[in-house]
Amino acid sequence: MKIAVISASKTNLEAIRQVLSGEGALARAVLLIHGGMEHLGPVADQERPDLFILDALCHGPEDLAAVEQSTSRHPSMAFIILCESQSPELLLQAMHIGVRDVLASPVSPPALLAAVERLERKTAAVAAPLHKGRVLAFIPCKGGSGATFLAANLGYMLAAEQDKKVALLDLNLQFGDASLFVSDHVPPNTLADVASNITRLDASFLASSMVEVLPNFGVLAAPEDPERAAEVKPQHIEVLLNLARAHYDYVILDIGRTLDATSVKALDHTDQIFLVLQETLPFIRDAKRLLHALHGLGYGREKIHLLINRYEKGGDIRLEDVERTLEIKVSHTIPNSFEAVSKSVNQGVPIVQVARHDPVTRALREMMDELVAGGESPKGSWLSHLLHNA
Ligand SMILES: Nc1ncnc2c1ncn2[C@@H]1O[C@H](COP(=O)(O)OP(=O)(O)O)[C@@H](O)[C@H]1O
Ligand SMILES: [Mg+2]
What we know:
Bound molecules: adenosine-5'-diphosphate, magnesium ion
CATH class of the largest domain: Alpha Beta
Largest sheet: 8 strands, mixed
Helix content: 40-55%
Distance between the termini: 43 Å
Oligomer: single chain
Number of strands: 13
CATH topology of the largest domain: Rossmann fold
């Protein structure tokens, strides 16, 4: 939800900022303006926030005239007014012109948070998706391919270096470990908690269930044990992905290699599937089977991308051999880098933080740049599209 705050007081503005950057912050874009009522009209017209918070600007009913201009011009915009004195006249007048809440100023954090969350729940329930994020799925052709490592680190870099809003969802119903690759925090909730509370799932519930690795990068951990995993059903995945797509620029799925009803539901909602393998025969054999299964499920070639991890030039098997055997082009190769990757994985810290210039980091950055460029202009990918179909 996009929120604009105008306050006449710098101290109050900071207090409000803190409330909004607390619980549920991942789902908010906040614009802070220090100044007076003259900002209201221009910001309403240009920024079109979903919610306006006006602090210390209304002292009596007469100040509401300016607010009324905006409430009538933008009927879907919500307004919360914070003022020092709340006379019955002011409250009545505010109600008349369609203000949602009149609260005390300086702000009472719990009251403001409750009012904002009420609105967020409402907006999530009725609003059409604000934008459509891209859903990328990573599947290992065999355990130990590096699918989780790549998914987690690509997600982190998209958030840290491209300023994208990213959600990594660990859909490995058994033995999920994605959150551990980028954080040492205990997950507040898991996929199982989200599934069992699906009727009250909204953007702020989702955000608060995730491990917040960065303000714009959250990881939803996998269920902690197989019993809880059984609570996760395909219909939950559908609701979860629709919601996540509406609120994040990139939704990255770490999917195990078992194809079942839940993972297939996830793949139905995926824009790009990355199959991760290494260049040895057992991996190639399993890649062949997996590709066969994916084609059987009706996923077209343009959706499936081959990612060779731990690639070493001059190995026994050449890239062309892999491509010929699997009848699909290799989209990306990620080099082998035992030391840097081990360090990152063992510390639970993204590789870009422990080895900024490592070849693996560079390869991930290249892949990220291509993804971002391709996602922003559909025309940009016509060449790769042709190549994949060749
Ligand atoms: N490019 C790489 N270079 C060196 N080691 C890697 C690389 N990618 C992954 N690894 C190692 O492989 C291990 C398994 O990776 P993981 O992502 O858990 O595999 P998967 O999810 O496919 O089962 C990681 O713990 C890491 O140590
Ligand atoms: Mg894994």
